[in-house]
């Protein structure tokens, strides 16, 4: 089901110029996200069409003019076309190079992100329709942020021993803030008070900061949400955006197995903010401390699920996002079954 959804593979600023690239894992598929000679974003599977060696190690960089396989030296243009096969006349006399371009994933650039559907065998030409995927309300709301004006700052990735769904659910309620995050981010937020709205299969949560109370003494026209709340978007099925005053962080939790997930966090900031390095590092450390508290709890919960102590779990009225998220997953699985 996840492999048929548009997933975010990079921020557009990571591949701002032709030849900029990111080689990474996407749901167990090695991919290269690259800006090609024509300025188009491409997502190739990082696998040579000769005998399948990886073209690049996991890395990010710029100034690439072609891909050259480190095994026998087959070369590809950035758009994926095979251009050179060493000793072709003698060794591959019948090969038409046009028949062996790199295998690519359908991808699109929208709201400053590169989105790809990680299913190379999916419907041919099924370019992700991101506006339809987000729905008109959320698509308009994202357009208003102007995420494409932001600049990539840093990414980190690690693995955890929990099911991906409980990872995503950690960010759909703030009932746990004063307890689990008492030593990290609790001082910033109002405990157990949040808005949660659903858009198609996606969600917007607003976690108000304590500073929002000061607005009561100010004229309404000076009220501003972003400095006084974290706005959290759950983008179905694996992504969570944390929109802050002048930056945002994207957390994605990809399944590796039923009880194992890969966590990836990408930090993106307003261009005028990037020089404030100590500020960012402190901010990222605080964010990471809270995320670690959330995901370490997922590991204890996973052991709890295995114990069968609970034949069902309880969601409070303040945890409605979790209930709705589960419904979205069931709905998506039903669609899969009907199409099978
Ligand atoms: S596997 Fe790439 S050139 Fe042989
Ligand atoms: Fe949390």
Which short descriptors sum up this protein?
340 residues; alpha+beta; Rieske Iron-sulfur Protein; Naphthalene 1,2-dioxygenase Alpha Subunit, Chain A, domain 1; 7-stranded antiparallel β-sheet; 4-stranded antiparallel β-sheet; 7 helices; 24% helix; 29% strand; binds FE2/S2 (inorganic) cluster; binds fe (ii) ion
Describe it for me?
- By secondary structure, this protein is an alpha+beta fold.
- It folds into 2 domains: 2-134, Rieske [2Fe-2S] iron-sulphur domain (Rieske Iron-sulfur Protein); 136-339, Alpha-Beta Complex (Naphthalene 1,2-dioxygenase Alpha Subunit, Chain A, domain 1), CATH 3.90.380.10.
- The protein is 24% helix and 29% strand.
- It contains 7 helices and 17 strands.
- The strands form 4 sheets. The chain has a 7-stranded antiparallel sheet with strand order 11-17-16-15-14-13-12.
- A hairpin with a 5-residue loop joins strand 3 and strand 4 (41-45).
- The chain is globular, with a radius of gyration of 22 Å.
- The chain starts with 6 loop residues before the first strand and ends with a helix.
- The model has no long low-confidence stretch (mean pLDDT 95).
- Bound molecules: FE2/S2 (inorganic) cluster and fe (ii) ion.
- Fe (ii) ion (FE2) is lined by residues 170, 176, 181, 290, 294.
- It comes from Salinisphaera hydrothermalis (strain C41B8).
- Residues 8-116 form the Rieske domain.
- It holds the Pfam family Rieske.
- GO terms for molecular function: 2 iron, 2 sulfur cluster binding; iron ion binding; oxidoreductase activity.
- Keywords: 2Fe-2S, Iron, Iron-sulfur, Metal-binding, Oxidoreductase.
